[in-house]
Amino acid sequence: MPGPPPAWHPRVDPAPLLPDAEPHRVLGTDAALQLDAALLKRLYVQLVRGRRYNTQATALTRQGRLAVYPSSTGQEACQVAAALALQERDWLFPSYRDTLAAVARGLDPVEALTLLRGDWHTGYDPRACRIAPLCTPLATQLPHAVGLAHAARLRGDDVVALALVGDGGTSEGDFHEALNFAAVWQAPVVFLVQNNGFAISVPLAKQTAAPSLAHKAVGYGMPGRLVDGNDAPAVHGVLTEAVRRAREGGGPTLVEAVTYRVDAHTNADDATRYRTADEVEAWRAHDPIALMERELTARGLLTDDFAAATRDGAEEMAADLRERMHQDPALDPDDLFTHVYAERTTQLRQQSDQLRAELAAEAATDEPAQEARP
Ligand SMILES: Cc1ncc(C[n+]2csc(CCOP(=O)(O)OP(=O)(O)O)c2C)c(N)n1
Ligand SMILES: [Mg+2]
């Protein structure tokens, strides 16, 4: 008996979509010998700078200069590789944990922290630097990236979008919708999942039953790639290839980088409540900077001068960040109502008038008290 007519037209998979069983690694393998020395050194400088940025920003939370900081210590290789895999004309779509990727892409370190400081909207002009606002609602940056990439393609612009998301973010509806649209439209977009083991206190095993997060790509019809997220040249290589493929019309790729969040979720979290010190120590032994130092040393590239210049450069960046973050910005409270709508609604106008009146009343009562001071 003949089978039923096909109700759909399955696409023939031109390339294997399934990820490899083991994460792709370069450092410590023969492939590392082929790596360009200049690229290795560039990655290393950015990793050291990134680690210093993370410790400085965390210190600023303790000094009351930052409301909150989600550190990416341990994940610097993903952050740096994401920034370096893109061309200037491309777009980066970061989450709240990806300030470092934005800085490695060239964003002013202070502007990158503005949102987390709570003093002004995004802090930078996304169009000028081609970095979308840091996104706190999980995975919402993904459909934005797909929309931008698809629109660019329709217009004939040579633009690739790279969107970052966490392991927890892959459980969101926006993740599904973004990947589905991206594959159906063959949009020039790359998704990088930083699987750092946890969504706050929720471990990956409670997040998904998939063999790996990269496997999720297959259901959408795009290749899934699994990479060691602490191996900077490996992440850089996989992302560069995915970006090239997207640029040439080959469609989207889902990359899962296996890494670890060494610090707590943010400065407001106590990670000792849900994981052991042994686990953290085991990951410290696979530190992205230490892995690179081993490679640079083996190739005779980590000279004293280069190491000192790298350290000094990072310290200079941290000192500048510290100094500028300790300056109180001049804020206009009315900015609360700016950039919400092109034209203010009646409610916003009323609220703005009310705030102005309250501030004026406060200033009037404060003034005599101030004059009375010696
Ligand atoms: C839509 C939405 N739901 C819940 C939250 C609260 N939340 C903030 S961070 C987080 C965990 C996210 O984990 P993951 O995606 O793995 O990223 P990571 O923080 O590990 O980088 C949650 C649930 C949120 N920000 N947005
Ligand atoms: Mg996570």
Structure explained in plain terms:
With 374 residues, the chain is α/β, with parallel strands linked by helices. It folds into 2 domains: 30-325, Rossmann fold; 333-372. The protein is 47% helix and 8% strand. The strands form 2 sheets. A 5-stranded parallel β-sheet has the order 1-2-3-7-6, with helices on both faces. Strands 4-5 form a two-stranded antiparallel ribbon. Helix 7 links the parallel strand 2 (161-166) and strand 3 (189-195). Helix 1 runs antiparallel to helix 12, helix 1 runs parallel beside helix 13 (304-325) and helix 2 packs parallel to helix 10. The radius of gyration is 23 Å and the shape is globular. Mean pLDDT is 94; it is low at 368-374. Magnesium ion is lined by residues 166-168, 196, 198-199. Residues 351-374 are annotated as: Disordered. InterPro entries: Alpha-ketoacid_DH_E1_comp, DH_E1, PdhA/BkdA, THDP-binding.
Quick overview:
This protein has 374 residues and is α/β, with parallel strands linked by helices. It is built from 14 helices and 7 strands. The chain has 2 domains: 30-325, Thiamin diphosphate (ThDP)-binding fold, Pyr/PP domains (Rossmann fold, 3-Layer(aba) Sandwich), CATH 3.40.50.970; 333-372.
